[in-house]
Design brief:
Bound molecules: manganese (II) ion
CATH class of the largest domain: Alpha Beta
CATH topology of the largest domain: Aminopeptidase
Helix content: 25-40%
CATH architecture of the largest domain: 3-Layer(aba) Sandwich
Radius of gyration: 23 Å
Number of helices: 11
Largest sheet: 9 strands, mixed
Length: about 450
C-alpha cells in the first residue's frame, strides 16, 4: 500500500534525537518548578505577570498608543491575565489567540469555616469544580489565599508548602468500622459536608480548642474570626510536583488541568517570533465552574482588553471588535483525557488520546450528542493541521471518552460565540481533576510547540 494512505499513530518518544529529548526534559524541569510555586489562580496570575514584565510586557494602561511589537497585558482582579504582542497588520484583520485557564478543582473554605467538634478544631469547606470527593481524604493539604480587612488591607496566606510548615488533612473512617460506608455508592461514600479539614487539637485553659486555634491564627496573621467573611482561602494538595516513571517520562502533580496548558502557552508567547498578526494569550479563571463571573472567560473584561488595543491603535470604529473576532482564530488550550490502562472501557480507542502521542486536538467537546459543544469546522481543522504538519508537530485528534458516558466543556464556545474559529488543543491527562494528575513530558513540549507555531502563523 502507498505510504500515507493509512493514518499510522506512533509514540512521540520514537525517533526523536538526543537534542530534542534534552529540550523536552529541560522544559518539564522548569514546568515542575512552576507547579511547585503556583497552586491557585492568584499565584498563577502573579507568576505570569512577573514573567511577562521580565520579558518587556507592560500594563496596557501605561500606553497612550500602540505600535508594532509593543507587548501589553491586563491583569483582571489578580485572578486572570490577558497578554498581547501587537502585529504590524490591522488588529481587525484578526488575532492569533491561545487561551488557557489557571483555576483548578479544589476545596474553598466556607465564609464561617472554623468550628470545634469532638474536641478537635476543623474548617468547613465547599468544593470548587468537579472532584471525586473520596480522593481528598487522608492526603496532606495546604491552604493558600487572601484575607481582606474592611479597610482594604490584604493578608496573603500560604501554609503547608515549606518543609517546616504544618500540613492539614481530611480524616476518613478506619476500615474496621467502615461497614456502613462500604455499602454506599462511591459518589455518596464521602459527602460534601464530610470534607472538613482537621486544623488543631490543643484546648485553651477553658478547654476550648476552637478559641485556642483562632488565637494562634490571630497571632500569626492578625485576623479575627469575622475576617473569614472577606477571604478567599483555598485548600489544595500539599504534594510536590514530581517526575514520574523509571524512564522519567511523565509528570505527576496537582493542578495540571489547566496549568499545563497555561505554562506552555506562556512560554510559547514569550518565545514566539514577531508576527504581522497580533498574538493574544488568555489565562482565565473560573473555567472549572462554568467560566462565569468577572474573572471568568464569559466576562466583558476580555472585550475591554481588545477594545483598549483597538483604541490605542486608532482602529476603533463601530463594529471593529466584531470584525476583529470574526477574523480571529484560536486554540482553546485545555487538557483532554488520556487513556487510562485501568479504565480503558471509558474510552473509544480509535478516538482517544494516548499520553506520549503528542498534543491533542478535540474538534468538539460537549456531552451526549455534542450538547453544548463548540464544533470546529472542517476548514479550520485543516488549517490547524497544516500549521502543525508544516512545523513537524506531533498531534492526535480525539474525543474525551465514549459517547454516552459523560462529557465536558472548555472556554472554546465562548470565543466561538464571538465569531472566532476555535478548536480545543491541549495535553492529555490521566487521573484528571484528582489531587495527583499525570501527563507526559512529550505532550507538554508538543503543546508548547503547537501554541508557538499557532502564534507565529501569518
Ligand atoms: Mn480544563
Ligand atoms: Mn477541568
Amino acid at each position: 500500500m502507498n505510504k500515507g494512505i493509512l493514518n499510522k499513530k506512533t509514540c512521540g518518544w520514537n525517533n526523536i534525537n538526543k537534542e530534542k529529548e534534552k529540550e523536552i526534559f529541560n522544559f518539564s524541569e522548569e514546568y515542575i518548578k512552576f507547579l511547585n510555586e503556583v497552586k491557585t489562580e492568584r499565584e498563577a496570575s502573579k507568576y505570569i505577570i512577573n514573567k511577562l514584565e521580565d520579558n518587556g510586557f507592560k500594563n496596557i494602561n501605561s500606553f497612550n498608543e500602540l505600535k508594532t511589537n509593543d507587548k501589553v497585558y491586563m491583569l483582571n482582579r489578580d485572578k486572570s491575565v490577558y497578554a498581547a504582542i501587537i502585529g504590524n497588520q490591522d488588529v481587525t484583520n484578526g488575532l492569533n489567540v491561545v487561551g488557557a485557564h489557571v483555576d483548578s478543582p479544589r476545596l474553598d473554605l466556607k465564609p464561617n469555616p472554623l468550628y470545634e467538634d469532638a474536641k478537635l478544631a476543623l474548617f468547613k469547606t465547599h468544593y470548587y469544580g468537579g472532584i471525586k470527593k473520596y480522593q481528598w481524604t487522608t492526603i496532606p493539604l495546604s491552604i493558600h489565599g487572601v484575607v481582606v480587612k474592611p479597610n482594604g488591607d490584604k493578608i496573603n496566606i500560604t501554609i503547608g508548602e515549606d518543609d517546616e510548615d504544618p500540613i492539614f488533612t481530611i480524616t476518613d473512617i478506619l476500615p474496621h468500622l467502615a461497614q456502613e460506608q462500604y455499602e454506599k455508592k462511591i459518589g455518596k461514600a464521602i459527602e460534601g459536608e464530610d470534607l472538613n479539614v482537621l486544623i488543631g487539637s490543643i484546648p485553651n485553659s477553658e478547654d476550648n480548642v476552637k478559641e485556642n486555634i483562632m488565637n494562634i491564627i490571630n497571632e500569626k496573621y492578625g485576623i479575627n474570626e469575622i475576617d473569614f467573611y472577606s477571604s478567599e482561602l483555598e485548600v489544595v494538595p500539599a504534594f510536590k510536583a514530581k517526575t514520574l516513571g523509571f524512564d522519567k517520562s511523565m509528570v505527576a502533580a496537582y493542578g495540571q488541568d489547566d496549568r499545563v496548558c497555561a505554562y506552555s502557552c506562556l512560554q510559547a508567547l514569550l518565545n514566539a517570533k514577531a508576527n504581522d498578526k497580533t498574538m493574544v494569550a488568555i489565562f482565565s479563571d473560573k473555567e472549572e465552574i462554568g467560566s462565569v463571573g468577572n474573572t471568568g472567560m464569559s466576562s466583558e473584561m476580555f472585550d475591554l482588553f481588545i477594545n483598549e488595543i483597538l483604541n490605542k491603535k486608532n482602529e476603533n470604529i463601530p463594529g471593529a471588535i466584531n470584525k476583529t473576532y470574526c477574523n480571529s482564530m484560536m486554540l482553546s488550550a485545555d487538557v483532554g483525557a488520556g487513556v487510562d490502562p485501568n479504565y480503558q472501557s471509558a474510552s473509544e480507542k480509535n478516538n482517544a488520546s494516548f499520553i506520549g502521542y503528542g498534543v491533542e486536538l478535540n474538534k468538539y467537546t460537549g456531552s451526549r450528542g455534542k450538547s453544548g459543544a463548540s464544533d470546529a469546522n472542517a476548514e479550520f481543522v485543516a488549517k490547524v493541521r497544516n500549521i502543525f504538519e508544516t512545523n513537524n508537530i506531533k498531534y492526535q485528534v480525539s474525543e474525551l471518552g465514549k459517547v454516552d458516558l459523560g462529557g465536558g466543556g472548555t472556554i472554546a464556545y465562548i470565543l466561538a460565540d464571538k465569531g472566532m474559529d476555535v478548536i480545543d488543543c491541549g495535553v492529555p491527562v490521566i487521573s484528571m481533576h484528582s489531587p495527583y494528575e499525570v501527563t507526559s513530558k512529550y505532550d507538554i513540549y508538543s503543546a508548547y510547540e503547537a501554541y508557538k507555531a499557532f502564534f507565529e502563523e501569518h
